[in-house]
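The instructor's notes for this session suggest beginning with a concrete chain rather than abstract definitions. Hand out the sequence below and ask the class to guess, before any prediction is shown, which regions might be ordered.
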Amino acid sequence: NIAQDKARSSVRFKRATKAMQDVLAAGGAGIRFLALQGAVPVEGGLPLLMDGKIVGAIGASGGTSDQDGQVAKAGADSVK
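After discussion, reveal the predicted structure:
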């Protein structure tokens, strides 16, 4: 469920969930991500792009944030 939520979040907000994690970690106005419905600001979600368009997403969970990010990237790279 967490992996699916990360994938959905990356599509809804058109960015890797790591980008949201980094903004949140910086504090200040980045705290706004905590209030966004459907946002999962934890690394491991990536939108899948083809010809610059989002065609899907991949999410990974079960490891550390870094590990989830690596697994999601490997999966996304295999689609290209």
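Then share the key points. The helical segments are 2-12, 17-26, 65-79. The radius of gyration is 12 Å.
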